[in-house]
Design goal:
158 residues, alpha+beta, Immunoglobulin-like, 2 domains, 3-stranded antiparallel β-sheet, 7 strands, 19% helix
């Protein structure tokens, strides 16, 4: 009979081998680090987070502020300020009227013939419908006396 002895494989002394699980974990951690870096970079460079004044190097020309709507009195109020040294003609604001389901049920508009340099136009718009629960600023527009007409689309709930 023959002598049968199984041979054993012994590992040489040294650092342990990398197992596939460690490689997988390393790749996952690297991918997460890259993803976090991209998200952070996107948040830093996202132009929607920058206020309109800082988005461009041009100075602010017209400013809209103090927008309110009272469903009890059915009145929209606000102010348009001219920050330039030139008058603006045909200054206008337009609002959508929304019901409780946020469906547009109408539209109102008000305008001023002129807003003087450094001046402010305060407006009050009466809402003709009773079922309006919210209003949305659609846009405001004006023509600078020495320049083209500016039209700013906003679509902001008030």
């Amino acid at each position: 009979m023959s002598d049968f002895r199984p041979t054993s494989r012994r590992r040489a002394a040294g650092p342990p081998d990398e197992t596939p699980i460690w490689k997988t974990i390393g790749l996952v951690l690297a991918a997460v680090a890259v993803l976090v870096g991209v998200v952070v970079l996107y948040r830093v460079l996202d132009p929607r987070d920058v206020p309109p004044r800082e988005r461009s190097s041009r100075p602010q020309t017209l400013g809209l502020s103090g927008l309110t709507y009272s469903p009890q009195t059915r009145v929209i109020t606000g102010r348009v300020r001219n920050y330039t040294e030139a008058p603006y003609d045909n200054v206008a604001v337009t609002f959508d009227l929304l019901d409780a389901a946020r469906t547009v049920v109408g539209q109102v508009r008000d305008s001023a013939a002129v807003v003087a340099p450094g001046g402010t136009w305060s407006f009050q718009i009466r809402v003709p419908r009773e079922n309006v629960t919210k209003v949305r600023l659609v846009n405001y527009a004006a023509t600078r006396r020495d320049g083209p007409r500016s039209n700013v689309d906003v679509m902001q709930d008030v």
